[in-house]
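Progress against Task 2.4 (sequence-to-structure conversion) is shown through the following example record, which the project officer requested during the mid-term review.
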Amino acid sequence: MPEPTFVILGGGPAGCAAAIALRQSGGGTVVVAESGAYRSDRIGESVPPDIRRLFSRLGLLDAFELEGHEPCYGSCSSWGDYVLGYNDFTVNPNGTGLHLDRRRFDAFLARRASKAGAHLVTGARFRSVRPHTGEPAFVVELETSAGVRQLKASFVVDATGSRARLARNLGARRLVHDRFFCATGYFHLRDKAELTQLTMLEAVPDGWWYAARLPDRRIAVAFACDGDDLRSATLHESTSWLRRLGQTAFLAPALSESFYIPGSLRVCPVPCFVLDRPAGPHWLAAGDAASSFDPLSGQGIHKALSNGLAAADTIRACLDGDGTATERYADGIRQSFDTFLAQRYAFYAQERRWPEATFWERRREPRR
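Structure tokens generated for the chain above:
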């Protein structure tokens, strides 16, 4: 009997974690199709100390620690009050959190997937999928620089991010709970200047600001707001964005010894959703393709790695004849999203300083 072939669409944390875990758990060919080439900047993300448990499960903890990402000792926030509150990791048994350089982090995982025996194909975009005639499998079509490539897959993992390209092609729908935008720019610390190694968060009448120090003395600064405010205030333009940043009570003073990196401002939509069908016969979605959380949760990378590990376990169970494995996986995705929604609502409900402000009014009650 020929070995199965697993096609993973997307070479980010969820896809690479699934690839590594699949290669470690048994035979089979694993192909990771990544549309990019790990060269472009990605927004940095803070991860909690228990991220180390997931890297231990992947057998990569020592290698990950050697990557030298910036430590995160906790957070400070002006949320629900006009003073800063603090939450630190100093007594956490798993150590400090980390501020990730996402480009370097993703490239590290891709290298480890290749080292584990996965076939990594960069510059490969998902084009279509169809059932394989006469076999319980799919034919996945990719568009590459060398032309169109077709792969027969015993199982397909959709790790294409919030666009969920494969799952939506197979009829799944995104159940969107909320949607806003993040305008993110980068700063650089001047020589000998310092910045706290705490994540900084500041709520304002029309959204919230976030700042985190990254390796190489860079700082990621993001403003979360609704699309109508983004357009009316032209916050996609650096001049308007910097002017709004200058009005903050805590972030602006903290950034006084740094300078904005011209041309670094990027705007991206942030949908909060879960798929109505995160899995089906011979396929499943993982990471942001299955569900997308508010970045305030700080769970995006943790969720992606955890989903990738769970995806590998589910696929192996399916191949061993477990007919309920994909439904259990889908139930886990939905339960995790419900927990996130409850926590998110409780956190946003703490901010009551601007009861008539549109941004906060829209998030005052749980929305289904």
